[in-house]
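Changelog-linked ticket: 2-acetamido-2-deoxy-beta-D-glucopyranose example.
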Amino acid sequence: MHTIVLLSIAAVSGVTGNNRVSATVGNSSVLVCSLKSNTTLVTWKISPKTGGFCTLGYRADQNKTDRTNCSDSVNWKFRPDQDPALEIRQVGIVHEGNYTCEVVATEGNFHRTYHLTVLVPPRLTLHCDDHGNPVCEAEAGKPPAQISWDLESNSTLREEVHDDGTVTVVSTCAAHGTNVTNTICIVSHPAGNQSKSVSCHPSKNSTWALHCVISLASVLSLLFLLAVFHLYTFCDSRTMRNQYRPRHLPPTELSGPISNSAPEQRN
Ligand SMILES: *[C@@H]1O[C@H](CO)[C@@H](O)[C@H](O)[C@H]1NC(C)=O
Ligand SMILES: *[C@@H]1O[C@H](CO)[C@@H](O)[C@H](O)[C@H]1NC(C)=O
Ligand SMILES: *[C@@H]1O[C@H](CO)[C@@H](O)[C@H](O)[C@H]1NC(C)=O
Ligand SMILES: *[C@@H]1O[C@H](CO)[C@@H](O)[C@H](O)[C@H]1NC(C)=O
Ligand SMILES: *[C@@H]1O[C@H](CO)[C@@H](O)[C@H](O)[C@H]1NC(C)=O
Ligand SMILES: *[C@@H]1O[C@H](CO)[C@@H](O)[C@H](O)[C@H]1NC(C)=O
Ligand SMILES: *[C@@H]1O[C@H](CO)[C@@H](O)[C@H](O)[C@H]1NC(C)=O
Ligand SMILES: *[C@@H]1O[C@H](CO)[C@@H](O)[C@H](O)[C@H]1NC(C)=O
C-alpha cells in the first residue's frame, strides 16, 4: 500500500528540467525532488547568485547525510531517507540562485534545477506634495512595483535602485491645482497587490506662505534680540548705580519694604 502511494507521487512529481520558483522574503520555501522508490544517492547542489556554493547529500546504503558549507537555514525538510525535499527557512535575498537536486536510483539518474527568485514586498506610503499632488511611494520592492492611479491624469515616475537589489518607485499624480478626493494608488507586485487612498487640496501659494513664515520669524527674532539688549543695558546701568552708591548709606534701600512688613506681621 505504502509503495503504491510513493510510486504515484513519483509519477506526478518526477518531472526533470528547469523550474522557476519564487519565495517572499522571510517565508520558508520547500523544493521537492523526484521521489524514486529505490534511491541510492541524493545530492542538492546549491549555487547562490551572491556566491557560497554548498551541497547537501544523502547515501541510502549507509543511511548517512553530509553537508558542506550550507547555512543552517538550508536543510532537508524532513528525513532524507523518506523524502529528499529541501527546505529554506527565513528566505533572504542571499538565497536567490540555482538549486539542483540529483538522484541516483535503480531506475536511472534524475536531476531537477530550480531557479529561486526572492520577492521583497514594497512598503506603500501615500502623501500630498507642496502643490497638492498625490504622491505614491512603493519603497524597497523586488522586483520593482507597478504603480497606477484610479485618476485619469498624467503622472511622473521616479525609480531608485538600492544596493541590495530592491527598488523604490515613486509616482506623482498631476492634480493641476484641483481638489483630489479619495484618489486610489494601486501598487501591483508579485508578492501581493496593495492599495491606499488619499485626499489632497491645492495649497494656497506655498512659496508665498513660506516667505510669510520666514519674514514673521525674522521680525520676531529681531524683536527678541532688541528686548534682550535693552534688558541687558538696563540691568547693567542698575548694577553700576549700586556699585557707586556712597558707603555710608544703609544697604536696605532695596529691601526696605520687606523688612518693614516683617514686624507688622508679628504684631
Ligand atoms: C509569507 O509570509 C507572510 C507573512 O510574513 C504571510 O502572510 C504569507 O501568507 C506567507 N506566504 C506564504 C506563501 O507562505
Ligand atoms: C543559474 O542557472 C542559469 C541557467 O542555467 C545560469 O544562466 C546562471 O548563471 C546560474 N546561476 C548561478 C548563480 O549559478
Ligand atoms: C536512518 O537513520 C535515522 C537516524 O539517523 C533513523 O531514524 C532512520 O530510521 C534510518 N533509516 C533507515 C531507512 O535506516
Ligand atoms: C567551503 O567554504 C570554505 C571557506 O568558507 C572554502 O574554503 C571551501 O572551498 C568551501 N567548500 C566548498 C565545497 O565549496
Ligand atoms: C498628458 O500629457 C500629454 C503630453 O505630455 C498631454 O497631451 C495630455 O493631454 C495629458 N493628459 C492629461 C489627462 O493631462
Ligand atoms: C477645494 O476644497 C476646499 C474645501 O475642502 C474648498 O474650499 C475649495 O473651494 C475647493 N477648491 C476647488 C478648486 O474645488
Ligand atoms: C495584482 O494586480 C495585477 C494587475 O495589476 C493582476 O494581474 C494580479 O493578478 C494581481 N495579483 C493579485 C495577487 O491579486
Ligand atoms: C504662486 O507662486 C508661484 C511661484 O512659485 C507664482 O508663479 C504664482 O503666480 C503664484 N500664484 C499666486 C496665486 O499667487
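Closing comment: Example verified and attached. Residues 117 and 238 are 79 Å apart (CA to CA). Helices lie at 2-13, 206-243, 256-266.
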